[in-house]
Design goal:
Layout lengths: L7 E5 L3 H12 L3 E6 L7 H4 L3 E2 L12 H9 L6 E3 L1 H6 L1 H9 L3 H15 L2 H12 L5 E2 L3 E5 L2 H6 L1 H9 L5 E3 L1 H7 L9 E5 L3 E3 L2 H14 L3 E4 L2 E5 L2 E4 L2 E4 L2 E4 L5 H5 L9 E10 L10 E3 L4 E6 L2 E10 L8 H8 L15 E9 L6 E5 L2 E8 L5 H17 L20
Parallel strand pairs: 1-2, 1-14, 2-10, 4-18, 6-16, 14-21
Antiparallel strand pairs: 3-9, 5-9, 6-8, 7-8, 11-12, 12-13, 15-18, 15-19, 16-17, 17-18, 20-21
Helix pairs in contact: 1-11, 1-14, 7-14
The structure holds flavin-adenine dinucleotide.
Flavin-adenine dinucleotide binds next to helix 1, strand 2, helix 2, strand 15 and strand 19.
Pfam families: DAO
Organism: Pigmentiphaga daeguensis
InterPro entries: FAD-dep_OxRdtase, FAD/NAD-bd_sf
Length: 415
């Protein structure tokens, strides 16, 4: 047992999720050690689109998902890539993913996700205040951009549902959209303004500020490769790191470590790519999502980041930038200043769960382990809320979210 009144906790994984958990737990009086085999914030948390995506209320699998998937797979230049060997090994995940696409499951998932997203900012704000991170986050609003007014009209229903769940959004014609975001060209067809969205200007710096604050509060950040979790703590290549409790927050790499902890929900790596462009002559004011192209553009501190692609393959497989490149082609027609050669490229794995909701709470077969992984497309947005939830669960407080929606034992039925 540690000298801390509340006890010792090892957080396994120094992505934004693990660090937000470590920060919340350290502030709560626990004696926290974070371990990561790499540098702080260098997993998926490094290269994402960095949107505080409070409008992303829909699960990935909605009615029609099977047909949609087949159509996307037929496009050799499109954003969906499934490596056959990986799919064959993870058939239970894919079967459960498709099975989630019923109207009722999509409705339940949408409401559950919307309820969490509604708390994203109120969870981030005190964290940003405490770590001195307000300069890294902008509440700029964002635009969902469409190629035509017809496409915008066709999406109205989804925005009405968002409005009914508390996400403000306003349709804009081309001139209105360009007045709001002058970097857009007149080739766009229209846009939806989402004033409640925002973004992180530098995700790596945000992770480092969280880590620095954890250390300043008395916690430790240790570089070590975890090989397992047992009753005494975390097993690493250099021996056991003893702790009263463990938080598993290893992103897309969590599943192997979770095996044996009683979790029945499969997890896959859904890898995304980004290309960084120099800011150019007409930098964006706010994040933009090119809806039909499924590309997010974000005005990061270091230049414009274009992020997209869902590549289902091993989390650590070599990047295939040649295959990903066409996904980003031609965007200069819609946004000025994105026709430059990329200054850098990146790939990283989203930790994806069939129902697009994270796995949070006590591990069924190991009550001293708390699970905090599987954030899919929303780990940046939900990291601070996850930290708050994990600290609440650890300390026996009411987590103020419906924990059934994220429970490690929730059932993902095939029919
Ligand atoms: C292209 C792309 C765009 C995205 N856009 C957005 C967005 O706009 N908004 C949003 O909210 N989310 C977005 N996401 C999702 C978001 O990036 C992830 O959900 C989030 O980063 C997951 O954070 P994490 O801390 O769980 O995982 P990670 O950041 O991957 O951290 C896991 C950590 O665990 C460590 N680890 C793993 N195994 C071990 C081991 N055995 N021993 C020690 N350490 C280990 C890894 O080294 C890593 O540092 C996007 C993702 C991608 C790929």
């Amino acid at each position: 047992m540690s000298a801390s009144v509340r006890g010792s906790i090892v957080v396994l994984g120094a992505g934004l999720v693990g660090l937000a958990c470590a920060h919340a737990l350290q502030r709560d009086g626990y004696d926290v050690t974070v371990i990561d085999r790499g540098g702080v914030g260098e997993g998926a948390s490094f290269g994402n689109a960095a949107h505080i995506a409070i409008a992303s209320i829909f699960p990935q699998a909605t009615p029609g998902i099977l047909g949609q998937t087949v159509r996307m797979l037929r496009d050799p230049r499109g954003p969906l890539i499934v490596r056959p060997g990986y799919a064959a090994r993870h058939l239970p995940w894919f079967a459960r993913f498709i099975a989630q696409g019923t109207a009722e499951r999509a409705r339940v998932g949408t409401h559950a996700t919307a309820a969490m997203l509604a708390q994203a900012w109120e969870a981030w704000q005190p964290v940003l205040d405490d770590i001195g991170g307000n300069d890294l986050v902008r509440r700029s609003g964002a635009l969902h951009v469409f190629g035509s007014q017809a496409a915008l009209r066709a999406a109205q229903g989804a925005y009405e549902l968002r409005r009914s769940l508390g996400v403000a959004c306003t349709p804009l014609d081309v001139d209105e959209a360009r007045a709001m975001e002058p970097a857009l060209t007149d080739r766009i067809g229209g846009a939806m303004s989402i004033p409640g969205m925002g973004y992180v200007t530098d995700t790596l710096m945000l992770a480092r500020r969280l880590a620095a604050r954890v250390e300043a509060l008395g916690g430790r950040i240790v570089r070590a490769q975890a090989t397992g979790i047992d009753a005494g703590g975390v097993l690493t290549r250099d021996g056991r790191l003893r702790a009263d409790r463990v938080v598993l927050a290893a992103g897309a790499w969590s599943h192997r470590l979770a095996r044996g902890l009683g979790v029945d929900i499969p997890l896959v790596a859904e890898r995304g790519y980004h290309v960084m462009l120099a800011p150019g002559s007409s930098p964006l004011r706010m994040p933009v999502l090119m809806v039909e192209r499924k590309v997010a553009l974000t005005p990061m501190a270091a230049g414009i980041r274009m992020a997209s692609v869902a590549e289902f393959t091993h989390a650590d497989a070599p990047a295939d930038h040649v295959r990903a490149a066409p996904v980003f082609d031609g965007l200069e027609r819609f946004v000025q200043g994105v026709d430059a050669e990329p200054v850098s490229k990146w790939v990283g794995p989203r930790p994806s769960v069939p129902d697009s909701r994270p796995i949070l709470g006590t591990a069924p077969a190991a009550p001293h382990v708390l699970l905090a992984y599987g954030h899919g497309h929303l780990g940046v947005t939900l990291a601070a809320l996850t930290g708050r939830i994990i600290a609440d669960v650890a300390s026996g407080r009411d987590p103020r979210v419906d924990m059934r929606a994220v429970a490690p034992l929730r059932s993902l039925r095939l029919r």
